[in-house]
Write a structure and sequence with these properties.
By secondary structure, this protein is an alpha/beta fold. The protein is 35% helix and 16% strand. The chain has helices spanning 7-18, 29-32, 52-55, 58-63, 65-81, 86-97, 111-114, 173-185, 232-243, 263-272, 305-317, 321-327; strands at residues 23-27, 46-47, 50-51, 101-105, 122-124, 127-134, 142-143, 159-160, 189-190, 219-223, 250-254, 276-281, 299-302.
Length: 328
């Protein structure tokens, strides 16, 4: 779907942004979708014929840590292959320029920090693929920004290997040499292990990521799984930002419906403090939850976040292209 901006809406948003001091951005999968990442979200989201939501549980990890780590190592790998898009860079630059700007993101892909988003201005409500922590109850080991790919050698993504032509089929020595040379010089192609027709091996527990501190526990991905509580420090940080704000000028809802708690609650609280709401989403029906939805004076910008967000913020941050070149 082509993305276009209503110029009158763009003008009124830019004018409001110019005088906004306290801004909260709620971000979801639609922010990173233009970077090409698979989300595996919602009903029917499968990975190797497994319901991806069923793999994202403590129970699944206890039952089959090898399979769960294959899934998350694959997601880490795909996230590292992806690049932050213009929306990530635009939000990072706004965070540097607006002291009272804070982002709360549902995304675990690590693209925002790679775009240079200031760490003090962003909170990860679902954790990060690149954090790991020990599963030993008595051990408190945690590690952030672990970008090893693969995280351990046993979880490496398998590659397609060309075989030289059998000796009996090469009619001359030159043909045999050419076949061998083709194999040696070929670029090995990674296999797509999200396809269950591609074989992956069962990794023994001792070859999975191990805790370097206690030496007893397995490391697990530092994401919030289903049936787990949201991180209290993240909720407290956002609550503090809201409580300390005499008023909130602007709430940006980017790539998420914000229909479930706690996001829906933040929409209501921000409105009570005077915020106008700007929604950036591909789906016109995907408006925020809470008691009010969209009101007169709010904005809905439909389309690709990587196109819309830089355009909306351009009046404050300038052209993002040179910033992207500097960062990359």
């Amino acid at each position: 779907m082509a993305t276009s901006l209503d110029q009158s809406d763009l003008k009124s948003f830019s004018a409001h942004l110019r005088y906004s001091d306290r801004i909260l951005a709620l971000c979801g999968a639609g922010l990173s979708a233009p970077s090409g990442l698979p989300t595996f979200r919602g009903a029917g989201g499968l990975w190797r014929s497994h319901d991806a939501m069923q793999l994202a549980t403590p129970e699944a990890f206890r039952e089959n840590p090898s399979l769960v780590w294959h899934f998350y190592n694959y997601r880490r790998h795909m996230a590292l292959r992806a690049k932050p898009n213009a929306a990530h860079y635009a939000l990072a630059e706004l965070a540097r320029q607006k002291r009272g700007f804070v982002t709360l993101t549902q995304n675990v892909d690590g693209l925002s920090p790679r775009a240079g988003h200031p760490a003090s201005k962003i909170h990860y409500i679902h954790g990060s693929l690149f954090d790991v922590k020990c599963t030993n109850f008595s051990c408190k080991y945690k590690e952030s920004e672990n970008y090893k790919d693969p995280i351990v050698p046993a979880l490496g993504i398998p590659k397609d290997t060309l075989e030289p032509a059998p000796l009996g089929t090469a009619t001359t020595s030159e043909a045999a040499t050419a076949s061998l040379s083709q194999v040696m010089n070929s670029v090995q192609k990674e296999l797509d292990i999200s396809d269950d027709r591609v074989e992956i091996r069962e990794v023994e527990v001792q070859d999975l990521p191990q805790c370097p501190q206690c030496g007893k526990g397995l490391l697990r991905p530092g994401v919030v799984w289903f049936n787990e509580v949201l991180p209290k420090d993240v909720l407290a940080a956002v609550d503090t930002f809201i409580e300390e704000s005499r008023s909130i000028d602007l709430l940006m809802v980017i790539g998420t419906s914000a229909k479930v708690w706690p996001a829906a609650g933040y929409v209501d609280v921000a409105r009570e403090k005077g915020a106008r709401v700007a929604v950036i989403n591909m789906d016109r029906e995907d408006i925020p939850g809470g008691r009010h939805g969209l009101k007169r004076g709010d904005w809905f910008f439909q389309g690709d976040a990587s196109v819309i967000v830089p355009a909306l913020l351009k009046g404050e941050i300038g052209d993002i292209k040179h910033l992207m070149q500097e960062q990359s």
